[in-house]
């Protein structure tokens, strides 16, 4: 059985205020075309279909467009809810949609009830484990201490119990949305730390043929049978070097799971660069980045004038400029009180300006600061006399 594993669509998400719905629609078209051209038998979507619990209307319309396109291909789709989805909203109409071959699994209580598909070699049981918030599902799974590992282990116990009761040779696929130990994170995933521990060991999923993970945005292989597909688009500059893709998995009759990566369309490359403004504007090696979304960390000792306007002259799609001046580190042994000792209010304020801007105030700015402090002192004196 040939599976197409994807996750973390985050429909409705923007990239530094850049609308990505067009790029997300292009991905959906690519997904449908891949399913058709590569003769896929099932699509699995491992959570975070939407970017937030109440998605914008345009994102809902895109999702509503994707489902019938997959159903028209006759390709069954199994989908779970993730940390960003509202499980209840995503699961509305699941019973009816199920008849069209779109299987939404958003209820933790149904973790041990699979979607069963068949190929020439027998049945394949697909178990959908939506994101399990420990505090909310601990009673359902009968765990004493709510933790990610405890609730996932309990859910997997149900999976293994159901699988053991099925005909010998039944193969199995688990969809889960979790942070599994060994996975590499990026800046755009939601923190799911509970009690200081967010990750679960891959061994929790022992006993099944393939585990289709969602949550982390980088495509990665944790074991031969446990993989993240990653997000189809880069949603932060920390993903600038990611190769965005889906997994095409051939589940063999003996349970072997050879897999191939299928690249996703790239609407525009991302680039992170660091240097002074003048260096970034003059570097001939950056010519190939002029059409990219660029994050520039400016290392100028003094904040340059109009940095964004100047950056966009060369990099029209520059986003999120940051000021990161390279300065000598402060004395780590000096306390804050020690640094302020014997310094009056005017000097402290001037030091603050120098710290933030990279250079101290000029004569006119010093005069403004002096007038401000004089006004405060005069007002304080009047209040004291009034008492």
Automatic annotation (TrEMBL):
Specify whether Hydrolase is a keyword of the entry: yes
**Gene3D superfamilies recorded for this chain?**
3.60.21.10
Q: Which domain of life is it from?
A: Bacteria
Every copy of the Calcineurin-like phosphoesterase domain together lies at 1-218
Residue ranges of region Disordered?
323-350
A GO molecular function for this record? exonuclease activity
Which keywords has UniProt assigned to this entry?
A: DNA recombination, DNA replication, Endonuclease, Exonuclease, Hydrolase, Nuclease
In this chain the Nuclease SbcCD subunit D C-terminal domain maps to 271-355
Matching InterPro entries, A to Z? Answer: Calcineurin-like_PHP, DNA_Repair-Maintenance_Comp, Metallo-depent_PP-like, Mre11_N, SbcD, SbcD_C
Q: Any idea what job this protein has?
A: SbcCD cleaves DNA hairpin structures. These structures can inhibit DNA replication and are intermediates in certain DNA recombination reactions. The complex acts as a 3'->5' double strand exonuclease that can open hairpins. It also has a 5' single-strand endonuclease activity.
Assembly with partners or alone:
Heterodimer of SbcC and SbcD.
* Family to which the UniProt record says this protein belongs: Belongs to the SbcD family.
Instruction: Please name the PANTHER family in this protein's record.
Output: COMPONENT OF ATP-DEPENDENT DSDNA EXONUCLEASE (PTHR30337), NUCLEASE SBCCD SUBUNIT D (PTHR30337:SF0)
Q: Which NCBIfam families match?
A: sbcd (TIGR00619)
Question: What is the protein's given name?
Answer: Nuclease SbcCD subunit D
Question: What is the organism of origin for this protein?
Answer: Streptomyces galbus
The root-end lineage is: Bacteria, Bacillati, Actinomycetota, Actinomycetes, Kitasatosporales
